[in-house]
Amino acid sequence: MRFSHVIGLFSAAAMSAALVGNAAAQSKTVKIGGIFPMSGNAASIGVHVKHAFDVALDIINNPHPELGNFPLAKNGGLAGLGGAKVEIVYADNQGSPATGQNQALRLITEEKVVALTGAYQSGITLTASAIAEKYNIPFVNGESVAPNLTERGFKWFFRVTPIATDFARVYYEFLNDMKAAGAKTDNIAILHDNTEYGASVANTLTTAFKEKGIAVALDVAYATNATDVQSQVLQLKEKKPDVVIAISYTSDAILFAKTMQALDYKPPMLLADDSGYSDPSFIKAVGKISQGVFNRSSWSVGPAGSPTAIIAKMYKDKSGDDMDDTVARQMQALFVLCEAIDRAGSTEPAKIQAALKATDLKPDQIMMGYKGVKFDDKGQNILASGLIIQLQDGENYVSVWPKASAEKTPIMPYKGW
Amino acid sequence: MRRTLWLLIALALVVAYPLVFTTPFQQRLGALVLLYAIAASAWNIVGGYAGQISVGHVVFFGCGAYAAMGAYTHFALSPLVGIPAGIVFAVLIAAVIGRPTLRLSGHYFSMATIAVAELARLIVTNTEYLGAAVGLSGPTVARNVFDLSFISALPYYYLFLAVLIITLAITWWMTRSRMGFYLRAIKDSERAARSLGAPASRIKLYAYMLSAGLTSVAGALYAMMFGFVDPESGLGILISVKILIMAALGGAGLLFGPFVGAAILVPLEEISNSLLGGKGAGLTFVVYGAIIVLIARFQPGGILALINRLWAKRRAKPMDESIAQEAGHAS
Amino acid sequence: MTFTLVQVIVGGLLLGAVYALFSSGLTLVWGMMNVVNFAHGDFVMLGMYVAFVVYTLLGGGPLIGAPLATLLLATLGVIVYFGLIRDIMKGPMLAQILGTFGLALLLRYSVFWWFGANFLSLPENLVGGTFDIFGIRIQASRLLAGVVALVVTLALHLLLTRTTLGSRMLAVAEDATAAQLMGIRPDSMQAIAWAIAAGATGLAGALIATFFYIVPTVGETLGIVAFVTVSLGGFGSVPGALVAGLLIGVIESLSGYLIGAVYKDIVVYSLFLGFLWFRPQGLMGKT
Predict the structure, then answer these.
(1) 20 to 30 A from A283, CA-CA: which of A18, A94, B60, B218?
(2) What ipTM was assigned to the predicted interfaces of this complex?
(3) pTM
């Protein structure tokens, strides 16, 4: 009676699950799983990353001599595997750690991917990489910054991106240089959301600054996806800090820009922490009223004709958006992973893992402004670093620090609108 | 008699499922169905039988999840130890918030439960001891079997099945008891039930506490399987809605309704995500949303109520009176 | 200090008026027809996208966008009523949650499919910039939304209390069968109620779009605020929603400024629950 129907549905569901698995089993392709948010609040991240990966696959799978020394660009496919093509199998994590883990399992066991990358939100990276660890599959992360990810004693987890302690160093040195150049940087306020990203970065910055003898005068925390941020802006306006460090996702970053204009508040220096302020949607929406905002980033387009400029153009042609730091870091992680697979000359997970451990990329072999890529025992890239960019004209970020890689000199004070 | 026979056959099929469908993803899918069936069945006690639509059940789910992960993080104990602790927390919280909120009628009760759930999420997000926004993790590499951190979904499957059977048995026992009689009376008309001397407030509170305790077990099992809980995944309002929707879609107020709902929605969600999610165009939820709308539109009493009705019609014999009656209650 | 405090309160009132604006439609259907609309936030979202499309295609501001959004959403309201609500109203309350939640997902992700997931925004000066009155800054776009909120509340209130149509709608809300016996057709009345409610919500969305960001998931952020506003005000009470909206706006602003923005929602929810303890029918709801 009632149950027979249920069981019928149940088994039909299970059979379609089986069908999903047996779909593609082509030879000469290397399958990599990509887990990203493609619905929910962070869906734009997943949409961007697909375009970026399309560009990366184009570079890897087809000859691109114009990119010069850039790894995997010269010939088509992975030379170490006889020209095998790379294929990405995407999965939507739906912004849920549970879904992220389910999809990781599916990619590993049904799609037979040889390695995974993703998953943007730190909490989801945590659960998805735990499955990869259990199945002995390498997981290369390019964008999650929660400190605990590399403190779990994992042997299959590698993180290319700089983390909060690296940001703190960048901020400290940048502010020092600005101070030497005559800017006032004594009174610092940190504005951040209380997500795992905002809270942990704010914490790390406060501690790191304290160690250097700088006190953070004002800490303004707020809940993300706010409907209104007037009171926070007024708090800042009243305390008049010299520097406001803003750590926000896109939604809140846009709201802050609009509210700051409405309440006529311009801090002398607005220093943003990547994320929302790097989102091309932020620039399109409120770039014109955020002129002169500094931003911590590891991506800069670079001079015309350079590999980074070519990649940036390919991405823009593909997606219609300018490349931002988040998507660039994700793309870099894919390159690091593919370079290791190429060097391993095998799709055996253990060999890929060994190759990842031996990774030693130089600055001219990567697209990010890192000092290179080299993993420590915990899987953290010890050469990850950052630079400071500025939205001088309200339309495009240009790198302004450190001097060695700067395209323009920093403009002070914050102009706004 | 026949009913028992069919039940046994169904049980045999559920027991056999992971032995027939052996890939890790299929087994996990089965385990997830059972997990959500536990949560939705627990919700059913207060939402289905008592007719008190709680949209804040995630509070109790979170109690279990946080207790399990907390036991590991703070005391290096097996997350299993968190289960009784979670039950105690959940029942206590239910007692405290149930007393004032259960007085509220209809939508006010639902709104109050939403507010309580959001309050809990916001407080935990700002509580360092509970991991704040970062959340709490379980053991990634199992120290022993009691850490319940398995590679295969098979142990989870049978563990969840056992818990589901216990949950359903408790529910069944409740419906046959005096409490179930009172609950049905309250659901039909609280005023009438009161005037006939039913201790309505007390009965509703008991149902709420029972439901809370069982929901926390589901939360604890969830956290153990995924090895992680954070404010969004342990206390997010969407989980409340998901639990409610499974029960409603299957058939609220019917013993096996929540299980049917879970058995439809969980595979639907996972498979549509697997097939469409990677395209990144939001199609998963267009399909998912459309199916829910269609079911609500054409079968507001839930799928199981429809099946029961068809069954009753075909046989039109007095034996199935009780089922038809149940179906009548739901719609 | 006091100066900033005045600015905080003014900001809170303007914010509250906006809350009231996008809650009035919800309170109408919720109170009158006892239907919970989980897709309400997504109706606001649709209104925002109408305003955005009007701006990008025609270059028009809210003067064109707002009426168009009202019209389109009112039409959608009628379609939703006849296509879905009329049938699920016969079912249990659970069916309403099920149906409108499914509708919410359907609307949200159809928009996502069509427009993508990027954050969009209208230019800041679309509605005349910002006024400076004795140093208190007031955004014209928010002021407009606030004024419209008052007008809509008043109009709805008058409609329900002073017109034949209004009393017919209330009669249906009170007892549909009895109303039918008196020659009122419940179906048309309820369809009209849905048209008005959805239209007001679309109007709200089009106005909010002038100072907020636009994204498919924005309805989630706004929907829950509307729920709290409506239940605090009392289901079905249009003036109640206005008072509740203003109250929540000011409390949020003040607690965000004085205690910290992380705690402002905690304050709002705690006060809301405490309030329900003493007055279980909301501010202006019927017992």
Answers:
(1) A94
(2) 0.91
(3) 0.90
